[in-house]
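Both lines are given unchanged directly below:

***
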Amino acid sequence: MKMSGLLNRRSNDLAGVVGTVRQIRAGSPVPRKLGAKDVAVLDLNRTPAATARAVVDAAVAAVVHVPRSGEEMLPRAAFRILAASTIPVIEDADLAEIEDGTRVRIDEGVVYSVKNEDRLASGREAGPTTILTEVDAAEAGYVESALAHLANATEFLSLEHRLLLDGEGLPDIDVAFTDRHVVVVTGDPSSEAQLAGLKPFIKEYRPLLVGVGGGADLLRESRFSADVVVATPTEVSDEALTDGAVLVLPADRDGRAEGLERVTDLGVGATTFPAAATARDMALLLAFHGGAEMIVVTGDDRGLENVFAPSSAPSSTMVDTAVSSRLVHADACSTLYRSRGTGIGLALVVLAALIAVAAVVVARDSAQDLLIWAIEAWNTFALWVQGLVR
């Protein structure tokens, strides 16, 4: 069914639906004034049911589904909610980079700029029957992927349970993790922005920094010095390998380590880590069994949207479970630190106000009155600040 047959809206006598782009990012609230003149752009794979219902209640002109690159459909309720409505759903039209507020016209899955009729993206309109068929297939595929993933994770557990539970087989490296905060930076695309968000946390707490694969170079580019690098030597630059960090090379369980000759040629020492795990998992286990107080890791979160994806390592499911009592995702750490920082900033503002009031008291009252007032005010202020930082 053509979109022009679903809704009879026109702009300059051109066919299709006309509306204003409203980007609804994962985790963001639905815009308050979302309505019939808007085109909602979102990733339905990460859209909760409540958001989908709000979009339907707003009776938007169209919904454009923009999943992550290369990602297949997940069986989210949002698809079924939209399929039960009369709102056109456009798939495979990448409007992720189109600015919020841009006026667009959508006709038969093609998105044009209203301003100059430039073609912005091309997709396909998915009717209710198509969406429901795709969701049914996604459900079956999701369960299949989960079963295969968990079977591989169980096999990993059978091989490496001593390593997971007791740290048997960990290399002996000259790094004191005990009671330290540790930040593990991976080479995932999301790590760059997450590392930027962690800068205030790193500046204050001075955690041990562990670069995993491309994360070692990412640390260098961000002007941080890695304390430990866990990587296959061919994945990182010479500078990252010779910057003074302790080098740990992932190796097969038989001890063979890819790229060992490169380290030898550079004249630096390295320790191999034989295990059936990824470099990321090895870094987490080194920190956890080394006694780290908290481990912050960058990269994609391992929620249900990602954990069973083909790119997700089954070993990571077991490793994350093993270290879960001390594991914090970078996004969560940044959010908590920002909240804490806001409280401290407010405390400083209040302190400045107290000083200003003290100046007024000095000008008006006796020194004894000032002393009594200052003691009471300071005690109240100190108790309030303690409550902020607990």
Summary: The longest strand covers residues 17-23. The longest helix spans residues 128-166. The domain at 168-334 is CATH 3.40.50.10240 (Rossmann fold). The CA atoms of residues 19 and 230 lie 49 Å apart.
